[in-house]
Amino acid sequence: MNSHRQTTKNGFTLVEILVSMSIFVILVALVFANYRYGNSAQNLEQAPRELQAKLRFVQNLALTGKDYDGTTVPPAYGIHFSYPGGSEFITFADTNDDKLYIQGTDTVLETITMPNKVTMTSCEEPPVQTCDTQQSCQCDIIFTAGDASIFIKQQPAADANAKVTFESGVTGKQKTVVVNAQSGIIELGNE
């Protein structure tokens, strides 16, 4: 009597499990890398939109002659930040009418922090002031009360446009916000 046993294979071999795990790890790494890239791209989209909204806000305050404390209408409203590497900006009431933010003198309305790894790298209007990483420059974009005339770095911006550049620390890509000095239009741009 010869009986043949038929063997059945139940389960997976060690090699099959290792190959499956390797494929899974590679897929997880790709998804994570794309998530980080997508998140930084979203942050770079958000930062200029936030500045654009706050510029429109202070422009509107200046046009309507709104008071900031319930009693006082300041001569101007503005936005202030440092660059390169600025990671926050403030909206303020220019209470002493010098077209410049002075800490302790002017009234801060709000401090806005940029999304993670996004910085403001320039504030340009002819003539362009260059700053390097060793030197911090200041940028003030001011709208005067009543007519919302625009001042950039204390200078009337009759023919020039202000251009604020944002950069992602992850991707190196840039986005801009442009304030048209003649029309007062505040628009988003790409680099």
TrEMBL record:
Regions crossing the membrane: 12-33
SUPFAM superfamilies: Pili subunits
One Pfam short name: N_methyl
Keyword set, alphabetical order: Membrane, Transmembrane, Transmembrane helix
Domain of life: Bacteria
InterPro entries with a match to the protein in the record: N_methyl_site, Pilin-like
UniProt protein name: General secretion pathway GspH domain-containing protein
Source organism of this protein record: Candidatus Kerfeldbacteria bacterium RIFCSPHIGHO2_12_FULL_48_17
